[in-house]
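Something for you to look into today, if you have time. Just paste the record in under my message, thanks.
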Amino acid sequence: MKHITNLYENINDTARNNSDCPHVVLPEEIFFTISIAGVLENLIVLLAVIKNKTLQAPMYFFICSLAISDMLGSLYKILENILIMLRNMGYLKPRGSFETTADDIIDSLFILSLLGSIFSLSVIAADRYITIFHALQYHSIVTARRAAAVLAVVWTCCTCSGITMVIFSHSIPTVITFTSLFPLMLVFILCLYVHMFLLARAHARKISTLSRANMRGAITLTILLGVFIFCWAPFVLHILLMTFCPNNPYCACYMSLFQVNGMLIMCNAVIDPFIYAFRSPELREAFKKMIFCSRYP
């Protein structure tokens, strides 16, 4: 985020005086390459679902929502690099009105990526819960129309929240709200997992008869959630430390890894499509058909 980057640069000199940790700098080419790969991979996921009628089901709609979130995160970095390049070439006036507006739009994409990922994972968790414990009623509960309505509400809320957070990005309540969504999502999904575990113990025989596809979907969600936490948690922690202890030498030492934490976010968008392909035979088959230009049924 440009707002976060600027704030980080302003406080970094003071903090570095109190810390012996060197500032880690990664080549912009690494970010750009990873971002391009993230956009292309998630675009393939979207095209596979759109072109394959057998994948046009609520579960894959939710996966597409997560793929869009990942793609926005990668697109954010691509646009930021292009903006920096144009400014360095003299085509943009530094801190001019156009650059400020463009920064706000790009930052909105970044926040939208995080919020979209959080809510998409939460919706996928709820979908897996219904699939496992209400299997017989699943198709009447989770219809394509209801899934589309849920996603419309989710992305409307994410868009409005993203714009609001960019406008008030320098406010501490905004930072607290932004970072609190991360643990709230974890608590929600953890509650679903605990409930599923308790029900599984109470109905062990019934659970054992569930289809492997349903349990496979729950495991896939667990992997996606683990990767999401691993990639995003360091950056969320960075924001908290930068806001509440910017001059502390220990905080400054962690904040020297700012670009490394940013690269982890970009990696999340690259890893997720591989998880889809590895865990879903249907998506894997769809990817093969797209790569080898086979006809869809």
